[in-house]
Amino acid sequence: MTIALSTIAGAIAACLAVSLCSLSSVFALWLKPAVLNRVVPYLVALAVGVLLGDAFIHLIPDAVSRHGTVSDVCLTVLVGVFGFFVLEKLVRWRHDHNVDITPGSGEILPLAKMNLIGDAMHNFVDGILIAGSFLADPALGLTTTLAIIAHEVPQELGDVGALLRGGYAPRQAVLYNFYCSLTVLPGAIFTLFLSQIAESSLTLLLPIAAGGFIYIAASDLIPVLHERCSFSSLSGQAAAFGMGIVLMQFIVFFEQVLIAI
Amino acid sequence: MASIDSYLHLIGFELLVILAIVGYLVEADLPKRVVSRLFITVLGFMLAHFATHALPNQIADFIYSSHHDYHSIKSAGPHRT
Known about the structure:
Number of strands of chain A: 0
Helix content of chain B: over 70%
Keywords (chain B): Membrane, Transmembrane, Transmembrane helix
Radius of gyration of chain B: 18 Å
Order of helices and strands of chain B: HH
Shape of chain A: globular
Main location (chain A): membrane
Subcellular location (chain A): Membrane
Radius of gyration of chain A: 18 Å
Number of domains of chain B: 1
GO molecular function (chain A): zinc ion transmembrane transporter activity
Largest sheet of chain B: none
Oligomer: heterodimer
Strand content of chain B: under 5%
Strand content of chain A: under 5%
Shape of chain B: elongated
Distance between the termini of chain B: 22 Å
Number of helices of chain A: 9
InterPro entries (chain A): ZIP
Distance between the termini of chain A: 29 Å
């Protein structure tokens, strides 16, 4: 199969646009440290809503529509949760059994590393989706890219919040988040040159990424939200959590409108 | 469907913005220098493309469109100078 150069260039341009969106969190650098410390718990709550929303509203239904059987997809999601549990155990074991959830001086918590791994995997899947849709039709590629950008911006904001909470400096958090977003390019290149393998790998990658998001949100981020117990933190974090879910649901409607055009 | 030239312009522009932001964020000397050189290289390519292809094409397009007799010379496909 020969692929038109314009298809390859279009897919690469779309991937770079997605990577560029991950740098949108650069605004965090202009905030004062005191303001940033106040904002981070709400960004973490937003990340929980966005990650769970992405898994349950976006990735799992997409995997079911591709795979067909709910039981197989659910089993693969569980494999993803299990895989991320083992991965986190390995990360903690490598760091002298560190189980503390508050970062010390210069120490990076496992939750930040797990978030980076999950985000890199998610972006790889996004690259497969972008290139796959460009191969089908450039117009479909454009709409898919817009949909991915729409869910990428709130997710990157939440991810940077989680990385800051994990002990990274603001500059490092934005940069590492950007480096992880670059996995969108290998995902697209993999699809452009091995499109059939990439298409079938989505049935595995989508639920595994969903399992990773559920694990990170439920086991790493939600315990962080329980550190502050006041009415203001309850209402603020609940609002940010809910907003993450609403954003993901809104993006599903937005995608349906784009596909209908 | 957009032409390959439009996609390449877009890629070049995106690379410039990414390299500018990453250059600002990177603190170590060596990576900063590498990013700066990459930025200058991409900018150089884009300026060279503008000077040797995009600008002459625009001028030719303007000249051929300015007079009725030239209309048959104007090609419908992508213009290359």
